[in-house]
Amino acid sequence: SGLPAPDLEALQAALQNTLAAGAPGAMARISGVDGVQTKTAGVRDKVSGAAMDTDARFRIGSVTKTFSSVVLLQLVAEKKIELDQPVNHYLPGLLPDDRITVRHLMTHRSGLSDYTNAMFNNTVPGFEAVRNKVFGYQELVQLSLNEPRTGEPGAAYSYSNTNFVVVGMLIEKATGNPVVKEYDRRIIKPLKLRNTSYVHPDTKIKGLHANGYLHPDEAGAPLVDSTEQTVSWAQSAGAMISSAADLNTFTSALVTGRLLPPQLLDQMLTMTPTDATNTRFYGLGLRRYDLSCGTSVYGHTGTVQGFYTYAFSTRDGKRSLAAMANTSNRGSANTALGGTLEAAFCGKKPV
Ligand SMILES: CC1(C)S[C@@H]2[C@H](NC(=O)CCCC[C@H](NC(=O)C[NH3+])C(=O)[O-])C(=O)N2[C@H]1C(=O)[O-]
Between 20 and 30 A from 220 (CA), which of 91, 233, 281, 319? Predict the structure, then answer.
């Protein structure tokens, strides 16, 4: 692959650091031309004490946005949707500004506010208030429209779940199907992702899975088991369930052109910086991280109550990493888990 071998000691250390930062468990799976390497730490279930298992399913949060983006871009390839058309062309009257285009949604430049900031301002009460709720897409969009916009359409990057809720509405309008049908027939079945599913509004993670544990805002308060929820507050922006192996398959299939024709993959990979550090970029429902060794990796991160996820591949798809920690609302654990990227793709640090 031309990459240095993964640093498996550093990979394990990143997982241990994630536990030290408050995660009950963590895992990482690397796949590529050099085979598969896995590491685990801690437990997938605090009550039974069952060890973390790289075969376990878990909630992937906003990695779902990349699945939604692939479906939408396939619809663009099929001439059913145009990226630079206004959203209101397909969903008349939905948005208060005809200038907001489909591409603005996919690049988080629509200016639509993210309703989850208010929804989860108080972490556990916010979660308990919605964990069993079923929202309609329109309800979620209205929550956003009740708040001021973050900027003019196309002006600046401002991450918002609302954008990919509207992407879900566009998919359903253009196909006449619920998004689950489009995920299944366009991605899950063709790639044989047997541990990936979109079960909204069911609250359970079926089969072998990790339980997720949410850190309350109050220091020292006990973790909350947040495993079971509808994730209806996110849906096409964050409700997918998957596994490390399936995410490895998905991100490598994406960058190697198995899901999109070249011209659409190129559009998806056309990146703009998300901040002043100029090391993190966003394309169309896809992140690019530029690592310290000069390698760029493509994929997405996820944060959903009880689960942090990283799912990335090199541009040539020759190496992929999926990493998960079964906690959230603990930034230090998310940062520690992010250390798996350097270990997986940059290998041993020069001494
Ligand atoms: C941009 C992100 C980080 S946030 C966005 C989406 N996740 C959410 O919007 C959930 C936010 C609340 C989650 C909760 N936090 C609180 O309640 C804080 N008060 C917790 O940590 O479990 C996702 O996933 N994306 C991440 C992404 O794309 O990486």
Answer: 233
